[in-house]
Amino acid sequence: MMKKIIILFITFIIFNNLVFSQTEEDKAIFLQNFLRMLYWTDDDSQFFEIDIIGDPYIDNKIANYFEKMEIYSTKVQTRIIAPDNIENCHILYVPSEYDELIPEILTKTINTNIIIVTETQEMIKQGVSITFVFISDNYGNKSLTYQYNKNTITKKDVKISSDFKGFGTLYNEDDE
Question: Taking Cα atoms as reference points, which of 140, 128, 47, 142 lies closest to residue 93?
């Protein structure tokens, strides 16, 4: 009996780590695609910069994905930062555990062209540019996608490609 419990426990831990890792990798792939499908019009940076608010130990999985990566011959740099260290970057990724800081972050970034990406769908209503969402099919399988606020993105002087529009779901403020 004890052996079965230990095997179940180990299986549970391994499965959770695999699911967590896959979800984090999916988010990193989306962030990579955002860099490919969004165009910062007044930008002459030598790097694409993604800042991640969070704990370096936890959030290194996403940051490590971009190590040595180039998009359109431009290197991608990632930094894991504290919430009070927001600087100029292309994408600011805010994990759900920092949702309470969204109003402050929006205030700090109002006159910048920083695209804010979150994990909580409700944050799109507060003014973030992109939020990750899980959708379920008829069989209960969940897949990761995103919802975007076109008005927020274009106010940041960032152009949206048709591919970007095709993969995500448009948040329509008029539906509220």
Answer: 128
